[in-house]
Amino acid sequence: MAIMEKESIIQVRNLTARYGDEVILDNISFDVHEGEILVILGGSGCGKSTLLKHMTGLATPSSGSVHIEGIDISSCNDRTLHIILKKIGILFQSSALLGSMTVAENIALPVSEYSLLPKSSVDILVYLKLRMVDLVGFEEYLPSELSGGMKKRAGLARALALNPKILFLDEPTAGLDPVISSEIDDLILQINKRTGATIVIITHDLDTIFSVAGRIIMLDKKTRGIIAEGDPVYIKKHNPDPSVRRFFNRNAKMMDS
């Protein structure tokens, strides 16, 4: 048990989330292990985005806690939270690039905010992050001049700007065609292998789930909790819950083993 705790970089404990009187998540607990790719999935309205907000400090649970590297981010002081947030990178579903800034300026923004590096060092860092996502040469482009896949790559580069230990990716392939989606999946795997970053992904894309997930957690709107956890291939084939089986056996290209 002690070994498992040591390997857990994120611990969600008895978390309950509400919007007003409506309970979205009810007393859920799970760990995220250092270096893994964990996918959080489920149908519409099951609480995926709500959980992501709580895991990144953007929302405070009604009860329970979220610990990152042993620190309860829902109750720590602002200074401690600031230190923890420097270890986190987030790719939002819309990429959330600032339209008035170039790609390079978008990537440099968190570095300028959280560090005192001189501009020459920031420029080098921006180049290195762009090279990681295969966007060298697009430094001076505005977000409006990028394709959907390129925006995702630029958003990933910005999420990687501070060399985070943890990456949160919200629907990283949403709105992309299958070929570009597959390229983003491959990029996620490369980032995980090269950096060792722990990656938490919110998605309902079956191809992404079977391509990148080492483990999945499935949320359920009806029970407001976790109804499946583990290897996605095993769960697809063997989980007895009808709602889990329906989710994993939708008409889509899936990888079997």
Written overview of the protein:
- The chain has 257 residues and is an alpha/beta fold.
- The protein has a domain of 171 residues: Rossmann fold.
- A six-stranded mixed β-sheet has the order 6-7-8-3-9-10, with helices on both faces.
- Helix 7 links the parallel strand 7 and strand 8.
- It is globular and about 55 Å long.
Outline the secondary-structure elements.
Elements: H1 2-7, E1 8-19, E2 22-33, E3 37-41, H2 48-55, E4 63-68, E5 71-72, H3 78-85, E6 88-91, H4 103-114, H5 119-132, H6 148-159, E7 166-170, H7 178-195, E8 198-202, H8 206-212, E9 215-220, E10 225-230, H9 232-238, H10 242-248
Parallel strand pairs: 3-8, 3-9, 6-7, 7-8
Antiparallel strand pairs: 1-2, 1-4, 4-5, 9-10
CATH topology of the domain at 2-87 and 164-248: Rossmann fold
Mean pLDDT: 91
Give the termini separation: 30 Å
DSSP strand content: 15-25%
Estimated radius of gyration: 18 Å
Shape: globular
* Quaternary structure classification: single chain
CATH architectural grouping of the domain at 2-87 and 164-248: 3-Layer(aba) Sandwich
- Return the structural class: alpha/beta
Number of DSSP-assigned strands? 10
pLDDT < 50 stretches: 1-6, 252-257
Short description:
This protein is α/β, with parallel strands linked by helices and 257 residues long. The chain has 10 helices and 10 strands.
